[in-house]
Amino acid sequence: MKTTLSVIKADIGSIGGHEKPSKAIVNRITEIIDSAKPLLISDYSIFSVGDDNVILMVHKNGVDNPSIHKLAWDAFTEGTKVAKSQGLYGAGQDMLINSFSGNVKGLGPGSCEMEFEERPNEPFLLFMCDKTNPGVFNLPFFRSFADPFHNAGFLLSTEIAKGFEFTIMDVTDVKNDRIIVLNAPQDYYDLATLLRDPETYVIESIRSRANGDIAVVVSTSRLHNIAGTYTGKDDPVALVRSQKSFPSTGEILSPWATAHFVAGDNRGSHHVPVMPVKLFSTISFFDGPAIVQAAGFCVHDGKLTEYVDLFDHPFWRTIQDKAARKFMDIREQGFFNPAMVGMNELEYTGVVEKIKVLNKKFKIRKKKKHTLIESS
Ligand code: F6R
Ligand code: MG
Ligand code: MG
To answer: What is the reported pTM?
Structure first.
């Protein structure tokens, strides 16, 4: 019988701004999820990342199961009631559609799920981000699953050397699930061509080419595509299986030492470095930085071990300092691009509306004389 890991997350209200859910919300979510054990789910773990709540569930019902999705939806609905009763900021923020119709996709909460036959030992990582979008995973996953600079397995393991299959989604297509499947290393440059634009092309999943096994799933929903206007950043999650035919846990963590620039942060409208931080971290300077947390688990017979907090290690202090330096460097130029994101990615419509007004005030001083430059 296969095991399914389901991660469903939502921002349903926060203390002190968009910083952290209250204990009462987390307790209510936990009560609801716990009541589904052992009939519907065999185990669970609950986290927060900045102002988002993340529910990890283990069960045997496969991906996109309506009962599992309803369980998470009910937990967030109950959590929203608590957030409202406490007067939390942004109560119910990600519950964009009122009625549940079988799956949280397109309703506001983010989700990623994978189903697999458990190996005798089954290590995996749960990544959780706040103040950024799902393209945050493009650079690190490309490097872990295609680049020998980060994954020594491409040289040292014949299984890993068979490469990986990437499914990439065009997240700007709001009507369709528009995807392309590319293989590393064969399609390396095509992969790079798409993944360099993380606002449009987002890694949805990755499979081993040695055995076809699922390695990675990412939550790819874009909130402003659902609501049509600003509703907060997507604050994505991802599951990654590690070891043996997959990269080692260390190879999966390695590219995060870049503290690469992503879109997000304050008003979801700035370019900032992503800082690897401890589990249950909060948000601070300039509503940022964008943060990533990672929990490592093993799952066995549907039961989770306790987790290891993978960015809670002295090594990452240096990377946090580096990210803070990069953050201050780009903040020095305030709102001048590329510190602020381009027009398409702005999460608030203020600039666009102001430009519409200003555009009407522009005057044509003189028509240009068009000169045709003919090539010889
Ligand atoms: C970004 C975020 C915050 C808010 C900002 C303004 O994802 O959550 O930076 O955009 O604090 O929030 P509102 O518009 O709710 O006052
Ligand atoms: Mg928020
Ligand atoms: Mg958030």
So the answer is: 0.95
